[in-house]
Amino acid sequence: MTTESGSRTPGPGPKPEWLKKRLPEAAALRSMESLLRKRGLHTVCESALCPNLGECFGKGTATFLIMGDVCTRDCGFCGVTSSAPGALDGDEPAQVADAVARLGLRHVVITSVTRDDLPDGGAGHYVATLRAVRAAAPAASVEVLVPDFGGDPVCIAAVLAERPEVFNHNLETVPRLYPTVRPQAVYERSLAVLRQASSHVPDVVVKTGIMVGLGEQPQEVRQLLDDVRASGADMVTIGQYLRPSSCHLPVVEYVHPDVFAQYAAWGEAMGLQMHSAPFVRSSFHAGESFDQVRLRDTGGAAG
Questions:
Q1: Segment holding 210, helix H or strand E
Q2: DSSP H or E run through 249
Q3: Which residue segment(s) compose the domain that 287 sits in?
């Protein structure tokens, strides 16, 4: 990493013990990958090089990545390819729904690349996929992790009208780091997405997430949590940023688990449902996280 004066500063060094994972079972990976490839489907687990891929695939769960695996934005942290994407696949909603049914999923997570090339940002494709999944697996709860749709409230409302149980839009980092980490995004625009979701459907769980280890300061994280609470959102995930390749932003710091615990305590004191630990990602244990919020909101009675 280079400072403003041009001098080199040391990176965080080797990964600490708390960031080392056991290798996944090859058989579990092959089985899930085979199902996905047969249907021409993508997962964010693979495209974003998620460190939890082996654990999730081993459990027969995945976060479906719709609208292709090429993004129109070029975020400094993301392992998804950035280029000119192809046309939408009209069969994709049905293929996702069929995979959900075959896997017998109890909680389905659907996300996408950002498609700034489409007039509606892909909102209509989300709607079609949600409807197909509902028809194929009516007992499953559905979580969407959406882009900002350029801040268009009509597009956001179209997805919310399908009443996903969880509506997730990630802030990703503190506002000071947006020019480096998310140069084509706007912090206030993403907060506005959360505000609209919180006010649109009273019983939807509104969720967001960030990465740490990019150079943010603890008080900046605390202010972000204040902003999230003020938006009306319910849940925050915080995990360690891990560099997908040498072409991506370097890791500034491997954040100690005690700091993650402190962030969780701050958010919980504000009334947020927190999932804060090094390997936490937006969709990791998403079904269990939704169950926790539902139990909290029903006073501990499952339903």
A1: strand 205-212
A2: none
A3: 25-293
DSSP H or E run through 46: helix 44-47
Is 14 contained in some domain? Answer: no
Asked whether residue 191 is assigned to any structural domain, the reply reads yes
Count of the separate structural domains present in the chain: 1
Nearest residue to 213 (alpha-carbon basis) of 260, 246, 167, 166: 260
- In which residue are the tokens 């947006």 written? 178
Return the ∠ at Cα 171 (arms to 165 and 174), rounded to 5°: 150
114-129 pLDDT, tens per residue? 999 999 999 999 999 9
**Residue 4 covered by a domain:** no
Q: Which amino acid is at 144?
A: V
Residue 104 gets the label, from left (phi > 0), alpha (psi -120 to 50) or beta, of left
Mean pLDDT score, 294-301: 56
Reading phi first (left if > 0) and then psi (alpha if -120 to 50, else beta), residue 122 is in left
Structure tokens at 294: 């539902």
Residue 12 and residue 252: Cα distance in Å, rounded? 6
The answer, as to whether pTM is greater than 0.90, is: no
143-190 confidence digits (pLDDT tens): 999 999 999 999 999 999 999 999 999 999 999 999 999 999 999 999
Specify which residues 206 forms β-bridges with. 167
DSSP letter at 54?
H
What's the CATH code of the domain at 61? 3.20.20.70
Other C-beta atoms closer than 10 Å to the C-beta of 198 total: 19
Examine residue 10 and state whether it is found in any structural domain, yes or no.
no
